[in-house]
Each structure stands twice: as C-alpha cells, then as structure tokens.
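Subgroup meeting minutes
Present: P.N., E.W., G.H.
Scribe: E.W.

1. P.N. recapped why we're keeping a running log of single-chain structure predictions: easier to compare across weeks, and new members can see raw inputs and outputs side by side.
2. G.H. added today's entry (121 aa).
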Amino acid sequence: MRIDVLVLDDVFDLGLSAVLDVFRTANELIEVGGLGVTKFEPRIVGLRKTVTTSQGLREKRRYAIVICFVVAAVLAPPDVVSQIALAIPLLAFYEISIIVGSWIEKKRAEEDKKAEEEADT
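Output recorded in log:
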C-alpha cells in the first residue's frame, strides 16, 4: 500500500520520523507473521521551506474562489444550485482557515514578545 507524506521543512521532523518508524515496524510485523498483506510503502512527496501565512491566504482569495467553483462544477451534478451549494462550504472552510491562521499568528507573536522580554531581563 503506497502512502504519500507531505513534509514541511523544520516543522514536523519528529512527527515524520515517528510515522516512518510506525510503518517500518508494521512491515516487520507483517514479515514475521507471514501474513499475505501488502506492505506499506511510505514516500515523501513534497518539501516546503515555508508555511503560508494568513496574509498570503488573503492575497490569494480570488484564486481560491475560482478554484472552489471549478471543483464544485466538476464534482456536482450539472445544475447551478448544486454547484453553488458545494462551492459555498468550500469557501467557508477557506475563510475559517484564514481566521484560525490569524489567531495562531497573533498568539505566536505574543509568545515571542513575552520570550524576548524575559530574555532581556
């Protein structure tokens, strides 16, 4: 069974090694047990140096709207109401990700500021 893993550079290094260890252990157990089960084949499919910020998501909003409606047109039946009914939740999830991202960024900025103040004293 092929499993694709997307990796963000310097973000999930420990998690990635843990996931790969789990699959390695599962493959060893399959070999020892002599089961006729397909082995896991994890592979890294991408590596990104940066994480998109909420400001970057805001700037790309118009492209996201077009992509949401294209996806809705492909997946929904040919009537417009179904396409809009599918596109609206996709857009809502996109907007929610922007809001959550900005909350996380504000929280990290506050934590960094507190850490700097503690380091200065």
